[in-house]
Protein 1
Amino acid sequence: MENILKGKTTALIDMDGVIYDSMKYHTRAWERLMKEVGVPCTAEDIYLNEGMTGPAVIQLLYNRALGHGVSDERADELYALKTQYFKEIGNNDPMPGTDRMLRALERAGIRRVLVTGSSQASLIDNINKDYPGAFQPGDRVTAKDVVHGKPDPEPYLKGLAIAGVPAEEAIVIENAPLGVRAGKGAGIFTVAVTTGPIPREAFEREGADVVFPSMPDFADYLDSIC
Ligand code: MG
């Protein structure tokens, strides 16, 4: 494989399933919430729609089950509950291999910008503690900064704007098919790392430029070129 960092200055890095091994907890929090309101929701729903904002997921699940959504206020209320459940259920488990991946990028002089569709403060606020120096202050896009969220390219376009670089100088690091779609929609070379149950074909369908089977595999690759 050609050196994927050639000509690159910036890595736009997703959080859930990339920085933190958190998708299992998100899934349980969603299942608990949707069970309470009587709307079907499977783990696959959550993995396949990862990257969308919380309220957008709620609208999708309601529409599918009942043929109509809920008010914006109700969606926000339900998402606040889901956020609370995640905080109760979840731990901020660092993704195995990610620390090594981030340090390799740092050695290569690649600026790291966090780009997450999440507003989960219980994770976002811990990144500097769990990964000291990995991200400079202000080098982050969260759900609070965007209108559309993934799979819209907006979050990654905002990441480019923060770094002040053109798409050609960046790479995206994602674990979710809709995140890959967002990265490609922004015109950026997109690396998919399969850190969950989604098969690699799902990432190839979205146009991922390269797919690594695990985070340690991606870190091994970076260690070999940086
Ligand atoms: Mg993710």
Note: Residues 14, 16-18, 50, 175-176, 179 surround magnesium ion (CB under 6 Å).
Protein 2
Amino acid sequence: MGRVVISEENTFFAFDPSISPAATVDPGDTVVFHTKDCFSNQLLSEEQLVTTIDFSRVNPATGPVYVRGAEPGDSLLVDILSIETADRGFIVTAPGAGALGDFVKQAKTRACYVREGNVEFRGLTLKANKMIGVIGVATSERTPTGTPGRHGGNLDTKLITVGSRVILPVEFTGALLGIGDLHATMGDGEICVAACEVPGKVEAKVGVAKGLRVPWPVVETADAFYILVSHEDLSQAVKEASMVAVQVLEKGLGLEWHDAYMLASLAVDLQISQVVDPRKTVRARIPKSLVSWEKLTKAFSR
Ligand code: CA
Ligand code: CA
């Protein structure tokens, strides 16, 4: 199996089928994505404010990568093998930004330091959780890399980390995968609009599941599948995530719809990924003790 390295100079700013691939790979290949931070590395000190940077260059994704054999109606499988980050990142906020933007009087930038598995912020030590903010494939909706959707994109989900598999619906031949926006750590919600934003590199193995039609991105961890739904309105995202989770239980387990609805109430967890991007992201957690890969595949295959 091959291994391809993509430099941080191969960045793009919208998930769009017209962007030329930075590399072409086969299923089973490993791709190393070198990534800039979400500010395109424009912040160099705490004195620099996010309100002064060039916003046409925020949220870069590295790629895109054309995966041979990925066709519309398939799903792309992305196994996250490793994530390395720089040892310094920045977190910012600004008036109007984040869940409490009305209360922010002025823009602020703070450095955070990544050391020995920890993140240091204002003299406090937090456990690092290196994760991917932006991961997606080309979509006919031509979506800016700062917005999440059915194609993935700016999902800002802390479970997209080493050991996870991200399952994305393929809309165009080759899929055109891009990855960027690494965080050294982040809490669910991403309350102030940013995490510990860092440049770095991601090593991922790509694969294709033929005929698997996931309606939204799915993250697989050791013990669960998470359906990631994004919408401008958080309650609409909750409704759609619930709908898809019930569909998985209904079709995957062969239940009547109302039984699947009740089972979802007993066993599925609704969680918030982020509430600060142009669309907010909710996830429905379905435990593998109920739904295996085979049953998930049954629910989403035609
Ligand atoms: Ca982000
Ligand atoms: Ca970010």
Note: The first strand starts at residue 3 and ends at 6.
